[in-house]
Amino acid sequence: MIEIDGSYGEGGGQILRTAVSLSALTMKAVRITKIRAGRSKPGLKRQHIAGIEVTGKIVDAKIKGLTVGSTAVEFIPNDRKGGTISYDVGTAGSISLVLQAALLPAILSHEPISFSLKGGTDVKWSPPVDYMRDVFAHTLKHLGPRIEVLQKKRGHYPRGGGEVVCDVTPVRNVNFLEAVQFGGLSKIGGISHCVRLPSHIAERQAAAAEDVILRHLNIKAEIVRESYHKGNDPHLGPGSGIVIWAESEHGIRMGMDALGERGKSAESVGTEAASQLVEEVSSGMAIDSHLCDMLMPYLAIASGNSRIGVTKVTSHLVTNIWAVERILGAEIELDGRIGEPGTVLVKGVGLSL
Description:
UDP-n-acetylglucosamine1-carboxyvinyl-transferase, Chain, Dihydrodipicolinate Reductase, domain 2, four-stranded mixed beta sheet, 27% strand
């Protein structure tokens, strides 16, 4: 059984998700200890349990220690499964973080898998589902896997209630990726939404973002406005947010997002996301600071060596590199310091099913 120190590096939920995901992919048992040891409330939260349980369904896993507050988990894969997997987080826990854990083993499954998930779609400290669809899944197409994400209903903190269907078409192996420089800017898209709120909020978020993009990148952004008329809004609670992405001449995308909150103007939300995107694009590198760590497990199992340029080296990236090397034995070379642009060379192990 592979032993993983859950307090290593960033020491949050990510190392837990990566360990369980790679365990399900390789069918090798793993034990994670000291889970979130440095946090004010250590151990598992409900959304961590959700990710582990959904991933466990893919491989009929035997799981020990799966209770709120637990600081140690054993994940023992048994048999690969396919079909439809349904799960309700029961809170505004992030659907995107559940998918982060479950998608990796799903793309090398023996048969198609469909996830039907309920929970939070736009919540703090996690990528919105719009980002997962329009940036993450878009990038994975360059590696081979096809992931179709349908957001049927949004879910904001604290009530949740979001609904997402994610269909995965498996592949036999993953392609390597060469994406160091972003290259010429082709277009900028996005989606600005509000639910259970006046429609002008989505409009103002989008307009503010478009203004920043035009002034700094000299290109007109195409941001979709999404809002609902009173009486025709199926969502459980109010919320707003924006996700915007830049696409290069090579078809590579990077994205940024911002959430609305009480006391924060719609203009501030749009400006925040757009300013972050301008900063990332201006680095000249191809892969944004949120996407880089998420890609590590996929590049590590690829057939061939991948080289990517990251807009900003993060502690999440460093932590995920360590976990991937520990479980897969892949060789990964990071050139760059935290907080600065860098490059990553990943020597893929060529895993296939």
